[in-house]
């Protein structure tokens, strides 16, 4: 399966794509840009024999609907990782963790979650094919290139995919404000799949029923919910903290 977008923007995202093994068709640079500020990117393109073209700002504005910082790359589509391939390569010498995003719709949230996932070594991210944001240029930019390093699985049926994860030894941890334990009491001494629900509705009923346990983030203020990417980041770092105690 492949994402449909073939454009990424922003200096960090483009540089990360060029550094990786992703196939770059062309890099477009805005006329008048201070090339000393992107010299490392230009040197990488020269080293990898990637075509670099200088174009008017209007050209970049036309191709991108998000801020581009004067740099845009035209790339082969991003490929999703098949769940079966991901599970066949599951590491046996460490505890594994993936994030399941149940109906997330904001591309900035997905990009931010991918960025944090890369920062602490999360093994992969799963999203449903329907009623969910996909890998697009906004996600790629928000991830600052981390999408190149974190496998993203896009599945037709998230409930069936959870069953396959369970068969592979994963425990499913859901996030829910009711009938759950404080996330600081969460056991991380097993392979984990952590579910983050959609921005408005949370987890679907069927996904919630498949969870082995539920956790919540305590809140003492006036707002009763957190941004999905913030909640995901707190949970990912809590797993990291438990598995990597400070001496």
Provide structural commentary.
- The protein is an alpha/beta fold and 247 residues long.
- It has helices spanning 11-19, 39-47, 57-63, 83-88, 107-120, 137-142, 158-167, 205-210, 228-243; strands at residues 7-9, 24-30, 52-55, 71-75, 97-102, 124-128, 152-155, 171-175, 181-182, 192-197, 213-216.
- It has a seven-stranded parallel β-sheet with strand order 7-6-5-10-8-11-9. Strands 1-4-2-3 form a four-stranded mixed β-sheet.
- Strand 6 (124-128), helix 6 and strand 7 form a beta-alpha-beta unit.
- It is elongated.
- The termini are far apart.
- The model is unreliable at 1-5 (pLDDT under 50).
Describe the structure concisely for a colleague:
With 247 residues, the chain is of the alpha/beta class. The chain has helices at residues 11-19, 39-47, 57-63, 83-88, 107-120, 137-142, 158-167, 205-210, 228-243, and strands at 7-9, 24-30, 52-55, 71-75, 97-102, 124-128, 152-155, 171-175, 181-182, 192-197, 213-216. It is 34% helix and 21% strand.
SSE map:
Blueprint (H helix, E strand, L loop, with lengths): L6 E3 L1 H9 L4 E7 L8 H9 L4 E4 L1 H7 L7 E5 L7 H6 L8 E6 L4 H14 L3 E5 L8 H6 L9 E4 L2 H10 L3 E5 L5 E2 L9 E6 L7 H6 L2 E4 L11 H16 L4
Parallel strand pairs: 2-3, 5-6, 5-10, 6-7, 8-10, 8-11, 9-11
Antiparallel strand pairs: 1-4, 2-4
InterPro entries: Alpha/beta_knot_MTases, Ribosomal_eL30-like_sf, rRNA_MeTrfase_TrmH, SpoU_MeTrfase, SpoU_subst-bd, tRNA_m1G_MTases_N
Protein name: Putative TrmH family tRNA/rRNA methyltransferase
Pfam family, one: SpoU_methylase
């Amino acid at each position: 399966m492949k994402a449909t977008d073939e454009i990424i923007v922003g200096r960090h995202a483009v540089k990360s794509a060029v550094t990786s093994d992703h196939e770059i068709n062309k890099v477009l640079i805005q006329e008048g840009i201070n090339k000393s500020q992107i010299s490392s990117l230009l040197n990488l393109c020269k080293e990898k024999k990637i075509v670099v073209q200088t174009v008017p700002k209007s050209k970049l504005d036309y191709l991108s609907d998000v801020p581009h910082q004067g740099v845009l790359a035209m790339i082969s589509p991003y490929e999703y990782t098949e769940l079966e391939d991901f599970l066949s390569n599951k590491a046996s010498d460490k505890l594994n963790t993936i994030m399941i995003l149940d109906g997330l719709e904001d591309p900035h949230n997905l990009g931010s979650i991918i960025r944090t996932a890369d920062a602490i070594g999360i093994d992969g991210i799963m999203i449903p094919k329907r009623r969910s944001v996909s890998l697009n240029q906004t996600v790629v930019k928000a991830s600052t290139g981390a999408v190149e390093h974190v496998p993203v699985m896009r599945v037709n049926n998230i409930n069936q995919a959870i069953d396959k994860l369970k068969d592979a030894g994963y425990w499913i941890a859901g996030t829910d404000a009711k009938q759950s334990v404080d996330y600081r009491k969460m056991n991380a001494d097993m392979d984990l799949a952590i579910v983050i629900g959609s921005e408005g509705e949370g987890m679907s009923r069927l996904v919630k029923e498949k969870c082995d346990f539920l956790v919540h983030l305590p809140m003492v203020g006036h707002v009763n919910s957190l941004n999905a990417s913030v909640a995901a980041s707190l949970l990912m770092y809590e797993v990291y903290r438990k598995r990597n105690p400070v001496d």
